[in-house]
């Protein structure tokens, strides 16, 4: 498949106006995407758990307009007009216009809200961009829809194309957003050990997954809710000419290949080793960039050390991962939740800003709320 496959046929249906709503989750990478080429093509493959509770809900209202020269849209977050979101969305619309040629024919109102607090330090770009991409796909579906009754097989193919293109578009908004359309494990980036993997969009992990990973828990400890000092766009770019870049990209392929066996066998110790090494490697890349930077905070390290101590003492299968920030994602199997959650509450929450944390778990992707 190539990007050209996402250029649609001529639209056959005239739709004057309408409104669609999607909710889409965030995701947490186990093997990290860090480093990209033009158009958010990743330098290495990644795999993520889709989350269940951390979501963005977006309603897209659209109505035909006369001028076909410009994009016209307004953005609201929690009912408040957000003009500072516009440049990012303008860039996104410019990037995807060739794949959604109806964009300049409509005036859009984008109304969005997150289930997690805006200033939680949790990136809303994955859930936000995927929700917007899905809304745009629903508009396109109306423009293509014919009244011809299609078979169940054709309908499945239709759904597959819909999800692939939604993921492809989300990727052009924010790379990791392409992993939020479906669940529960999503691979993005071409790698030889995963059949069907592609740089263009996320695919559902296609192999057997052991029971141990069903309903896997992710408790997100909000260590620092402030704005990041270095954006992920800047961070990705610092991987160009990074002295360790090539070996890091190679390592990601190897880690994904190893993870394949681990996901099948259910080996939780081996899982924890890969996931933690990936988190620390991501931050090591940041610390060895030029200019270098550190996104972890003292409390991030306190939590990591506490987790290691507790794991050593109890033999329970608790581990951590990090995204591009100071917050810690504490991962553990559902069957050990009782003891681990107790430990989190009694020992780790003290390191969170205002004691805030979010209990989430592995989820199954986006849902359409309004058709
Ligand atoms: O999607 P971006 O450009 O915000 O990059 C996100 C990168 C990490 O969250 C650090 C890792 C990942 O794979 O999600």
Please provide a written account of the structure:
The protein has helices at 86-96, 125-144, 152-173, 232-237, 245-265, 268-287, 298-314, 337-348, and strands at residues 17-31, 36-37, 41-42, 46-64, 72-77, 80-81, 106-114, 185-188, 203-204, 217-221, 319-322, 328-332, 357-361, 367-370. The protein is α+β, with helices and mostly antiparallel strands. The strands form three sheets. Strands 1, 4, 5, 6, 7, 8, 9 and 14 form an eight-stranded mixed beta sheet that branches. Strands 11-12-10-13 form a four-stranded antiparallel beta sheet. The chain has a two-stranded antiparallel sheet with strand order 2-3. The radius of gyration is 21 Å and the shape is globular. The mean pLDDT is 95. It contains eight helices and 14 strands. It has two domains: 3-207, Ribosomal Protein S5, domain 2, CATH 3.30.230; 214-361, GHMP kinase, C-terminal domain (Alpha-Beta Plaits), CATH 3.30.70.890. It binds (3R)-3-hydroxy-3-methyl-5-(phosphonooxy)pentanoic acid (PMV). (3R)-3-hydroxy-3-methyl-5-(phosphonooxy)pentanoic acid binds next to helix 4. Residues 29, 32-34, 46, 123, 125, 174-176, 232, 236, 282, 323-324 line the site of (3R)-3-hydroxy-3-methyl-5-(phosphonooxy)pentanoic acid.
Question: Which helices and strands appear, and what pairs or packs with what?
Answer:
Elements: E1 17-31, E2 36-37, E3 41-42, E4 46-64, E5 72-77, E6 80-81, H1 86-96, E7 106-114, H2 125-144, H3 152-173, E8 185-188, E9 203-204, E10 217-221, H4 232-237, H5 245-265, H6 268-287, H7 298-314, E11 319-322, E12 328-332, H8 337-348, E13 357-361, E14 367-370
Parallel strand pairs: 5-7
Antiparallel strand pairs: 1-4, 1-14, 2-3, 4-7, 4-8, 5-6, 8-9, 10-12, 10-13, 11-12
Helix pairs in contact: 2-3, 5-6
The protein binds (3R)-3-hydroxy-3-methyl-5-(phosphonooxy)pentanoic acid.
């Amino acid at each position: 498949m190539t990007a050209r496959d996402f250029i649609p046929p001529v639209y056959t249906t005239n739709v004057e106006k309408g409104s669609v709503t999607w909710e889409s989750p965030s995701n947490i990478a186990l093997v990290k995407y860090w480093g990209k080429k033009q158009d958010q093509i990743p330098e290495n493959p990644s795999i993520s758990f889709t989350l269940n509770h951390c979501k963005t809900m977006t309603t897209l209202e659209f109505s035909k307009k006369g001028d076909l020269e410009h994009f016209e849209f307004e953005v609201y977050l929690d009912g408040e007009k957000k003009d500072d979101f516009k440049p990012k969305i303008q860039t996104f619309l410019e990037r995807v216009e060739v794949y959604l040629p109806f964009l300049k024919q409509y005036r859009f109102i984008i109304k969005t809200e997150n289930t997690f607090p805006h200033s939680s330090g949790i990136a809303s770009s994955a859930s936000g961009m995927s929700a917007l991409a899905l809304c745009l796909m629903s508009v396109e579906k109306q423009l293509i829809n014919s009244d011809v009754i299609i078979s169940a097989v054709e309908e499945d193919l239709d759904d597959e194309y819909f999800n692939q293109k939604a993921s492809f578009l989300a990727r052009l908004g924010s790379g990791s957003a392409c992993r939020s359309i479906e669940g529960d494990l999503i691979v993005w980036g071409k790698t030889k050990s995963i059949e069907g993997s592609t740089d263009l969009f996320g695919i559902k992990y296609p192999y057997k997954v052991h029971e141990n990973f069903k309903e896997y828990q992710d408790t997100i400890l909000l260590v620092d809710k402030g704005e990041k000092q270095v954006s992920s766009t800047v961070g990705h770019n610092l991987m160009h000419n990074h002295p360790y870049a090539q070996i890091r990209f190679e390592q990601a392929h190897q880690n994904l290949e190893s993870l394949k066996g681990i996901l099948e066998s259910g080996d939780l110790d081996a899982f924890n080793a890969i996931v933690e090494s990936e988190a620390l490697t991501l931050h090591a890349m940041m610390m060895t960039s030029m200019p270098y930077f550190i996104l972890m905070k003292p409390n991030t390290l306190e939590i990591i050390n506490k987790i290691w101590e507790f794991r050593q003492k109890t033999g329970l299968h608790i581990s951590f991962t990090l995204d591009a920030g100071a917050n810690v994602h504490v991962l553990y199997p559902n069957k050990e939740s009782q003891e681990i959650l107790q430990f989190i509450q009694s020992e780790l929450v003290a390191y969170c800003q205002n004691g805030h944390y979010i209990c989430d778990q592995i989820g199954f992707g986006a849902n359409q709320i309004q058709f």
